[in-house]
Amino acid sequence: MPILIRYVLADLAKVFLVALAALTMMMLVVGLFREAAQQNLPLSAVLRLVPYILPDALRMTVPVTLLLASTTVFSRMSGANEVVAIKALGISPMVLLWPVLVLSFLLSLLTVWLNDMAVSWGRNGVQQVVLEAAEDIIYSVLQSQRHYSSSGFSINVKQVDSRRLQRITLTLQPRNNAPSVMISAEEAELRSDPVERRLKIALRNGTVDWGKASLQFDFYEVEIPLNEASKARSTGGSPSWMALREIPEEIARQEAEIQREEQTMAAAAAYQMLCGEFDEMTDGRWEGRRSARVEQWGRLYRLMTEPHRRWSAGFSCLCFVLVGAPMAIRLRNRDFLTSFFLCFLPILVVYYPLLAAGIDGAKNGSVPYYSVWAGNLLLVLWSAVLFRKVQRY
Question: What is the pTM of this model?
Fold first, then answer.
């Protein structure tokens, strides 16, 4: 028995590691290219992204490569009649399958951890690299396009001489519907401060215009938050950016906030009804409160869905092998690519749409949050039929 276990696991490890390395490298290159193109990152910043994008690439490649490895190994063994020979010796095919299932379970736990790392540590790390490279990004864009804009401000220059911006026009868009501020200067220089998370623009010999007022200056410095100066995506406290350990506490906080808001609304409604202020119960303030309450419940639904989404996606490793390994034995086809696609196509058509539908429904509260497990459950039921046929025939 130990010889058979070592034989299966050795073959599986060879295929899995080679396929994992190749597919992960491809996904890593795609991820780096996407971030570099979106953020106009210099090469030095792109290389710093590698450790942060790697968990995101691995969480997508591990389930697929594990399915490929299991179908490759068992389709070859079945095609060479090795499974028939084992059955003829009175040995159950489960002797070959259970070590792979145990390995798949362990890799599922690893994939859950990778899912958590990718959306919390990985995404935040990418954003940090983008923020720290904001100065180089803006200089690079200005050198090539002479124009750069982000949320809240825009820069136009006549020429870029090394680190000096010649004939610059800086437009600031204040909040609260205040008039925009336009600053024109003969020369300017950018300097980012990662500690204070600010982008400082030092301008010389220019004019500040806001509304109908105007002011000339010899030196003027503007400070802009780095998250506004760069085009880094804002997390906004999104549940999809939180670590799993943070979500239970955030759920409790959100439930308490909803309870306070409902108590406040109930008290306000009772007071207005007692005083006969029925007209005020239909004004815009109540509409705003109702909208805020809907947003609070929506955030709670997303918080409750997120842990199940990561665990169900991680355990796709085990579910894929539960289907792929017995199906490869049943097909008895030595062409591993045929076996792989015959296993993966139903998964692609059924599992991923069910997962996406379950996540969308759970996030808006239309279905229970455990609906994200529907695809996994369907694969388990399918595998039960396949395992019965493998053992019987």
Answer: 0.83
